[in-house]
User: Which sequence fits this backbone?
């Protein structure tokens, strides 16, 4: 039995492909939903962290630190296996999305905060002097500039979220990895796992390359 | 009689350092006042208090057109009436020159886009840069950027214009074009309070010159008097140092 037949078996590949594509679809849905929800949560947390009254600011800092410390897998298992004991029963998809969003939101908050803090004080002052309110200043002046700065780190974070969706397979979510392990068991051949890995790479490599490109361009401009 | 801008007992401290130590000042409608003084004398802090970019001691009082410079609604009304030009321009880099001028009328006053654009073009030609309207600030010279900043402030039709060392960050050859715009503006009857090191501008344009030192107004008067026959020794020392270099 040679290596190609074991790891890249054409027949197994053909039979498992529909399953893998179903898994990929779920992975992409979970990734996209968690990224968007994480962005919204992160922006809200960043605003609270920067501008809310002192006790709320402190609370937000604690949140951000806790959710950056907790292993995602531990959080996911708590949400899926522990919350039912207090009557909260979430589907595998919602459990995974909740865990991914809570953690991604914490990271995103720090990214947004750094971006906002990088905007010169004069921009806030010019806005205030013109009579713009706090929200208008954020929306029209600060965020458009801050978002440009934080696109590379936000993309990095999104890549991590998509990679972390694979953890959802432990709560029986039929995502790409779960489908691959099942297809492997069915075919008694590891080819589906190799294909799944290739699919992850094919989707994320372009994003990784894009981040490197953006970071190079930003570094060049700063010189 | 209180001035259009009236300042009573203005005090401000940073920790134990007193930046402003009880300033009283009235500026009449249409008056052009130049504030001079050594760095650290509190002159920038003084004009930054007028639209409350700096907070000040609660015992102090500032009114613009009778409206107390406080917080919330009243502050928004004051800021809509008071334009400000900064040393470092502070244009919005993500907006074109025209959009810089249009932003506040559109968002604060709700002016329709077409109307705000027409008004912006009119103001830009008034400051002599109508042909740069579609460029981004980074592609303009410092003098041009500062003229855009003046147009941006004028777009809100302010009753009072504050200038915080508007030419200090400029290359020498660009100072003149900005001062020319300010001179034209002074002729239109806008109330102006100008913190500056440009003694020529102060002597030609100002109705009154104020000399500050150590957080206090040391001496004030018409430019011909204050700049040529100062009474106080501190004023003489400062003018001697400035004019002999």
Assistant:
């Amino acid at each position: 039995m040679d290596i190609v037949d074991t790891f890249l078996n054409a027949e197994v590949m053909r039979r498992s492909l529909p399953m893998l594509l179903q898994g990929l679809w779920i992975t992409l849905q979970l990734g996209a939903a968690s990224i968007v929800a994480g962005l919204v949560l992160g922006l809200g947390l960043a605003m609270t962290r920067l501008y809310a009254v002192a006790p709320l600011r402190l609370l937000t800092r604690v949140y951000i630190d806790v959710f950056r410390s907790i292993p995602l897998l531990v959080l996911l298992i708590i949400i899926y296996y522990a919350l039912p004991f207090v009557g909260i029963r979430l589907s595998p998809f919602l459990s995974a999305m909740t865990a991914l969003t809570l953690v991604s939101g914490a990271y995103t908050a720090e990214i947004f905060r750094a971006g906002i803090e990088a905007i010169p004080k004069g921009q806030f002052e010019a806005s205030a002097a013109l009579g713009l309110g706090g929200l208008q200043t954020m929306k029209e002046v600060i965020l458009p500039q801050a978002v440009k700065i934080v696109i590379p780190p936000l993309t990095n974070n999104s890549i991590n979220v998509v990679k972390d969706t694979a953890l959802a397979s432990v709560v029986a979510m039929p995502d790409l990895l779960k489908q691959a392990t099942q297809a492997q068991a069915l075919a008694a051949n590891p080819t589906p796992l190799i294909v799944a890995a290739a699919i992850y790479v094919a989707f994320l490599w372009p994003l990784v390359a894009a981040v490197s490109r953006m970071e190079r361009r930003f570094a060049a401009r700063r010189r | 009689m209180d001035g259009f801008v009236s300042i009573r007992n203005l005090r401000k401290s940073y920790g134990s350092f007193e930046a402003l130590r009880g300033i009283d000042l009235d500026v009449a409608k249409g008056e052009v006042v130049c504030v001079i003084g050594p760095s650290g004398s509190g002159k920038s802090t003084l004009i930054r208090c007028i639209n409350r970019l700096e907070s000040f001691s609660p015992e102090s009082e500032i009114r613009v057109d009778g409206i107390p410079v406080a917080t919330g609604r009243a502050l928004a009304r004051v800021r809509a009436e008071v334009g400000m030009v900064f040393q470092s321009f502070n244009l919005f880099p993500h907006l074109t020159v025209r959009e810089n001028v249009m932003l506040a009328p559109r968002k604060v006053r709700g002016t329709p886009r077409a109307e705000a654009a027409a008004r912006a073009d009119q103001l830009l030609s008034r400051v002599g840069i109508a042909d740069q309207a579609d460029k981004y600030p980074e592609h303009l010279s410092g003098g041009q950027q500062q003229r855009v900043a003046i147009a941006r402030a004028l777009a809100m039709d302010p009753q009072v214009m504050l200038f915080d060392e508007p030419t200090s960050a400029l290359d020498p050859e660009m100072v003149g074009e900005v001062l020319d715009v300010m001179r034209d503006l002074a002729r239109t009857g806008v109330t102006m309070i100008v913190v500056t090191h440009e003694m020529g501008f102060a002597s030609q344009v100002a109705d009154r010159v104020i000399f500050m030192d150590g957080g206090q107004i040391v001496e004030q008067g018409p430019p011909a008097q204050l700049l040529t026959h100062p009474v106080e020794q501190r004023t003489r020392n400062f003018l001697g140092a400035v004019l002999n270099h």
The longest strand of chain B covers residues 17-27. Residues 16 and 45 of chain B are 16 Å apart (CA to CA). Chain B has nine helices and ten strands.
